[in-house]
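thread: overnight batch results

M.L. [08:02]
morning all. the overnight job finished for the chain we discussed friday. pasting input first so we're all looking at the same thing
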Amino acid sequence: MKNAIKNKNSRVNGAIPTRAELLAAQELALERVKEMTPQEGFDLLVSAGIVSRRGKLTRRYGGRAKNQPFVW
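M.L. [08:03]
and the structure it wrote out:
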């Protein structure tokens, strides 16, 4: 059986991050989220397209709300 991807690094843009680098990035992201106000957290979910401005889960994530662009 042939591999679907001939060069497994063909999709990578630059060097592959190490486990330590990924963990450091995760820790930084968690610290930023912990410092957010509830409104900032909600705005982040809306801008990511996870929930609508009305607070409903979008279709992409299993809900029924339409994906709507968020304007800052």
